[in-house]
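Lecture 7 notes: from sequence to structure.
We start with the chain below.
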Amino acid sequence: MVSEGRLETRRYDTLGDLSDVPRSALREAMNMIGVVESRREMAYKVTCETRYHIGSIGTSSEPFARATRGQWDVENGLH
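Predicted structure tokens for the same chain:
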């Protein structure tokens, strides 16, 4: 994605098998862990960021990506 003079690439991935995670560490409805990796290139600077999420929207990465992008729209609208 190119925006405001920068190139940004995002990769979304989910982990759906939480059988090894103690239930005490998660709320009962939580069924996925998601990861967003962002890489931004601006002029001569490159930054990388990894964010982790837990959720209850299933294990498909597409709904996770839509929900994550939607959250950024809400936050940006507040500024």
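Points to note: Residues 2-73 form one domain. The longest strand covers residues 32-42.
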